[in-house]
Every structure is written in C-alpha cells, then in structure tokens.
Amino acid sequence: MIRRSVTAFLVVLVLAGLTTTGVTESQTATPGKGVEILVDVNAAGGKINRNIFGQFAEHLGTGIYEGVWVGPDSKIPNTRGIRNDVVTALKALKVPNVRWPGGCFADEYHWRKGIGPVNARTLTLNPNWGGVIEPNSFGTHEFMDFLEQIGSEAFLSVNVGSGTPQEAAEWLEYLTTNQPTTLAKERAANGHPTPYKIAYLGIGNESWDCGGNMTPEYYLRQLTIYSRFVRNFNPDQQDPSRRMLRIAVGPGGDGPRWTAWTDVIMKAWQQHTWSWDMEGLSLHNYTVVRWPPAYKSVGFAEKEYAEILKSTLEMDGIIKTHSAIMDKYDPEKKIALVVDEWGAWYAQLPGTKPGFLAQQNSLRDALLAALNLNIFARHAERVRMANIAQMVNVLQAMILTEKEKMVLTPTYHVFRMYVPFQDATFVPVSFEAGQYAHEDVTLPRVDAVAAKDTGGALWLAVTNLDPTRPADVVVRMTGLSAKSATGETLTAPAVDSVNTFAAPKTVEPRPISGQVQGNGVMITVPPKSVTVVSVK
Ligand code: AHR
C-alpha cells in the first residue's frame, strides 16, 4: 500500500510540471477569457496504446464477489455465474485488459485452490482485505470466462511473496500448453481443452511492501528467476509480436526510495543476458493527498475538489522522473512503463466493512480520470499500459452494485467517452491553459489532448477544471479549416454530484456541438466538465 504525503514543495513542483509536451500554460490568463486550442494535425506522433484504458479487479471487498461473480444459482441475471448487467456495461468500454487477482491479494493467492468443482473448493482467508473468507469460487476458469464475455485480455499477477517459481510456472503451463501434459489434461477436465491466451504477466505486486517487503536487489533476484521459469507455451503466442509481456514490480511514487528502485531494475535489465528478460516496469501512484486516506468521496467542498485535482496532476512529474531513469538504460523505449494501479483513494464510506475500500464516485473523479488519461496519452511512447483501481465497487470504480442494482459512475462515462482514443495516434495541441484558483490552490483552468482514431477521424478531449466558469474553446487545425465539432460533455450540478441507485443519471454525458468561427470551431464547455468531440 502506498504511503505518501504532499509537501508544499511538491505542490510547487507539480505546478511547474504542468507544462507538458505541446501544452503551454499561461499564469496570467484573464478570467472568463476564451481558450484557443491549436491542433497540429501534421505533427501526429506515437500511438496511444489501448492498454492505458486497462482495469484492475482484485479479490477485495465486493469487487469480485457481488460485483462480478454472483454464482450460477443467483436470482441476479448471470451467465455461468457472472453478472450480465456488469458484462454489458463493461463491453461498451472495450476494456483492453484486466489485472487479476491482485494487488496485495495476489501475493497470497494459490491458484490450485480456485480450480475444479466449485462446491469442493477450499475456503481460505483474505487477510489483507477485512480478513473475510475467500470462497475461491471465482478462480482461473471463471476469470478467463469473464474476460471472454467482456472481450478483454488477461493480465495475471503471479504470487512472488508467498508462492514459488514452481507454483507460478505450473499455473502458466496449466493455462497455456497445448501438449497433453497432466496439467493440460486437468485443464481439459475442468472444461477448457484448448490453451488460454495470457497476454500480460505481472511478476509480483508491490514487492517492496505487501508483496514481501523486499529490497530492490532481493526483488531483482526473484524477477530474474520468475521471468526465466514462468513460461507461456501457447503456440499462438510464440511469435514475438504476440508474446506474453512480463511486467516487473516498479516504484510506488517518487523520491529517493523509488528512483533507487527503478534504477536497480533498469540497470540490471540493461545488462541482462539471454536467460531472463522483462517487457514492462510497473508504477503505482494513487491520488490520496496524505496517508491514511481521509478525504471524503462525497459531500466535500470546493477546497477538497481543488486539492485532489492538484494532487492527481503529480502523476505527470512522477512519470517524467521514472521515464528519465528508464531513458538512461533503455533509450529505445523497449520497456513500457505500466501504471498498473492509479486512481483516487478516499476514506471508506461510513458504515461499510473495514478493509473493503468502498467509496462513492463523483464528478470530481470524472475530471481526475480525464486528467490522468491525458497525462498517459502525452507519455504514449513510454506509458503503454495502465490499470485504474479498481473495476467494480472498490476505490475509483467504473460500476457500483448493490444486490440486483447497478449504477454507472462518472468515471465510467469518461472511459466510455474516451474509447476513440484507444490505439489512436497522438496529435499535439497547444493552448494557454489559464488559471483556476481557489484559496491557496492554483490549477490550470483547462486541459486538452487530441488524437486521430484508427479510421482517421480527429478527436479532441477538453477538461474544464473551473467549477464556475464555462470556457469558450476555439479549435483551430494547422493548415485546415475546422467546420464542425460534435460529441458529448459530462458535467453535473456540483463538483461532488454522484450517481446513486435512486438517482443513477445525475452525472451523465449529454450531446454538445460547436459553431464555425472563422477558420475554427467554437465550443462552449461547461464549468467542471469533460468534453470529447470529433472535429471535422
Ligand atoms: O488497490 C488496493 C491496493 O493498493 C492493492 O492491493 C495494492 O497493490 C495497493 O497498495
């Protein structure tokens, strides 16, 4: 678990770090002034990997049990035990990958307890998260079935902390071999004769903390062993373009402890021999302001809105810090930086079970999600994967469920609106962000990213952080006249507006379009909003 605090010094650094590739920031913009965004269509850059829209589903609270898995005998409509309403909602997000089974849970997970007849599975404990009983009913086959139902790929975290290389190697053999080994026959007997595809392999989780309190040097020894022996045998994954990517445990923030971690792993990778390798380095960074999480997820004032957004913008500086170390050892950017845990971590909702990390999800979280997705897009060449924590009912979730009820959160809507950015080509934009200030917190007033989708259409995402002033955004394209901008905008009456089971549509996108103005298009984006438009 991350323990971080924000000092005034860091706050200054964050502000300084806001000027990112293709974005210029003015500290003097006039209140109410419009914002001109110049889209440099001729300077399209790298691919925004669809994997940055990945999700994280841990055995934690009601994230899996209730949120995804209700069992085949449940009255809640399901397919082989997996909730139909949740599957339908997730399909619309085109979720590229799901990280599972943890988190801290992964380093105490023993896969053999989650296969075979469901009624005969061992009951174990989940000491990290409330000490509740883990029924193991959602195991390997159920996870792979869930992925198939939503159309996603597997990102498995293997147990390094309390497991062995043999246990992890056997799990991968069970999943992926097409040869008639005893493990493959067992997989077939459990209902899946053909090998599964495992696209991504996380070698441990937070091995510097809940994953085993390891030093970087000790973890490096584990990494070299696991990366050598945990093999993927799927014949369709032997081609280098389809090979399983191995992701090493990386840092949990910035500061000397974390830069040292990145340095040790990347330096060793630069000198690695044929016998081990990795393709990604993970980064965990939650928006929490200070530990333990105390900010409320609902019922907060503008001060907390501004502070949380300021804190979330630190992501850019943290990525820059670790990218610089990675560039030193890997100038060709072969190793991806994988932000496989990110999002807002607030105080648990009153009355919910300790350790279940249940929180509401407000309009503020929608803006927070957009700001982070924009940061990842600007770092597209290095950040090629990210996983928001977490998918259902836990931390900054897409979906909340209560028995048979389900509600889509503001964060869900942002992920749905950003679908055109999946695998799109990054297009640089320049604009004067202006300022939004509240008490001692100063933030950029707007943020924007653009991309060309796989069909060649141009998309622009604009976030207006200012909770009271709309922004007149004039979009101009280099060398071309913009004639229309149509899409959706997401806002709500208050910064802490939420969707509830009783009122599920308080924060919902609505159509927006712009008007031609000279050789550009003018769109008035509402205060505290996220807007995504297609520009023609
Ligand atoms: O997402 C909740 C927890 O946060 C994860 O289990 C752990 O990896 C991190 O500390």
What do these coordinates show?
α4 crosses α5 and α7 runs parallel beside α9. Strands 2-5-8-9-10-11-12-13 form an eight-stranded parallel beta barrel, surrounded by five helices. The chain is built from eleven helices and 27 strands. With about 525 residues, the protein is an alpha/beta fold. The chain is globular. The two termini are about 45 Å apart. A hairpin with a 2-residue loop joins β3 (about 80) and β4 (about 80-85). Alpha-L-arabinofuranose (AHR) binds near residues 104, 341 and 390.
Strand share of the residues?
15-25%
Provide mean pLDDT, rounded.
93
Radius of gyration: 23 Å
The main β sheet shows up as: 8 strands, parallel, barrel
Q: What is bound: which ligands?
A: alpha-L-arabinofuranose
Tell me the helix content: 10-25%
Q: State the distance separating the first and last CA atoms.
A: 45 Å
Strands, count: 27
How does the helix and strand content classify structurally? Answer: alpha/beta
What is the strand arrangement across the widest sheet?
2-5-8-9-10-11-12-13
Tell me the number of helical segments per DSSP (H or I, 4 or more residues long): 11
Any low-confidence stretches, pLDDT <50, length ≥5?
Answer: 1-31
What would you call the shape?
A: globular
